Amino acid sequence: MKKVYIFIFCIISCTSDFPKNPDINNQSRFPRLSSNENGDVFMSWFEQIDSVEWSIKSSIFSDNQWTDPKVVSASKSYFINWADFPSVHRINQDTLVAHWLEKSGAGTYDYDVHLSFSFNKGESWSISQIPHSTLAKGEHGFTSFGISNNVHDIIWLDGRQMTMGHGSGDYGQMNLYHTTFTSDGILGKEYLIDEKVCECCPTSSVRYDDNLVVAYRNRDSNEIRDIFIARKIGDNWMDPYPVYKDNWQIAGCPVNGPMLAINGSNIALAWFTAANESAQVKVAFSKDIGKTFSSPIIIDNSMPLGRVGIDWIDNKNVIVSWIKSTETSSNILAKVVHIDDGEGRDFFVEAIPQGRISGYPQVEVIGKRALFAWTEINQKTSVTTKWISLNQLR
Question: What is the model's pTM?
Answer without folding.
Answer: 0.93
